[in-house]
Structures are given as structure tokens and as C-alpha cells.
Amino acid sequence: MKRKPPTKDEKLAAVLLEYQRLLGDPIDREQAKQMTAAEITSLFQWDHDVHVVNRQSDDPKVYNHPTIMTPRLILQHREKTAKKDIPQIAKGKRIRADNAQHTEKMAAKIGQAVPLGEIVDRVMLKTKQKIQKRKLQGRGFGGWRAMDGTPRWKRDRKRRASAKET
Prior knowledge:
By secondary structure, the protein is mostly helical. 58% of the residues lie in helices and 10% in strands. The strands form two sheets. The chain has a two-stranded antiparallel sheet with strand order 1-2. A two-stranded antiparallel ribbon has the order 3-4. The N and C termini lie far apart (109 Å).
């Protein structure tokens, strides 16, 4: 009789049990034997390390990528969300609101009644232009070295040429 291969749910349940054991907070093995794969996976929630509010992209492939998700027991996930995530998200919102308010005040002072998005775009463009203008310019080497190692200058060549003509 041929054995059927494990399903993705069964594999996920096994990985979650092993992960919890490695964390030092194992789920009792005897209790786990009495549970189905779906019941084991229902004990866990997926925690995003990068918050959806603070993400750089609206692409679900980015903010649901496995590298930024951590499985946590439901109680641990609720505690982390309440103590760490919610205050961090609120702080980000406060900072963005204060920055927007400051930008609007500065625009009003210089007499610009421009929507905030355009102001941000202008600031980013000016910042890019400043960065591009900062490239160092060398003065160049206005000459060469003779075979004996002595420096020769273009200006000396011009002087010698004008001296020969006269």
C-alpha cells in the first residue's frame, strides 16, 4: 500500500510545532497528537514585521512576503500588537501629520497655496538636483611629463610657440 504525501496544511502544522519548540515554548506533544493540522495552524497568527501603514509599496507581494512575516501564538501576537505595533503606527501617523502641517505653513509663508503632494514632489526634485550638482570637479592636469620625468605644461608650450614666431 502506497502512502499519500503530506498536504501543505500538514507540513505547515509540523513546521509551526517545530518552530514553537525551538523558541523554547513548545506545545505539548500529547495535545498536538489529538489535534488536526487545521486546529494546530489555528493556534497561530501571522505577524508583519513591517507594518502595512509604513510600507513603501501597495503591492501585496511586498508586504505579504514571507521574509517579513513571523508566526506567533495568538496571545503573543495580541500582546505585541497592543504594546509595540499600535504605538509605533500612531507615532508614524503623528510625525507625518506634523510634517504635512509644517510644509503647509511654510508654503503659506512664501505665498504658495499648492496642494501638499505637489510641495513634496518639488522638495524631492530640488533635493535630487542638489545632490547631482555636488559632484566634485577636478581642475585637470594641464600638461604631461617628459621622458626624463620633468613636468611639461601646455601653457609653456604656447609660450614657446609664440616666442618662436616672433
